[in-house]
Task: structure prediction
Amino acid sequence: MSFEFNEDQPIYRQLRDYMANAILQGSLGEGDALPSVRTVAVDFQVNPLTASKAYQELVNEDLVEKRRGLGMFVVEGARSKLLDTERREFLDNEWPAILRRLDALEIDLATLTTSTNTKNGKSS
Result:
């Protein structure tokens, strides 16, 4: 698997984010089994304990569940829960910085919307 880790956060957290993103994008659907810890460790070239810790984060967030002897599975409602969490994170932490940048550049939302729609081939 081609994935490069960065130095900004722990590897287990990046693995957790990778799996959460797979749930958000639908490549891991509700009820789907996650790859085994061993498979993830080999594919990402990390220690199995690191992969296990990433999975435990997903369990703690009620996004996946352990089924004894079977593995880890995406729970019902995981994608919806992730969307809610990601939206809240964006609105609370990222959007204010974007608004400040727009303000500094004297770009109002109407101009931004018009510019975005024009670039996407939509007319206002």
Notes: The chain has two domains: 11-76, 79-119. The domain at 11-76 is CATH 1.10.10.10 (Arc Repressor Mutant, subunit A). The mean pLDDT is 91. The radius of gyration is 19 Å.
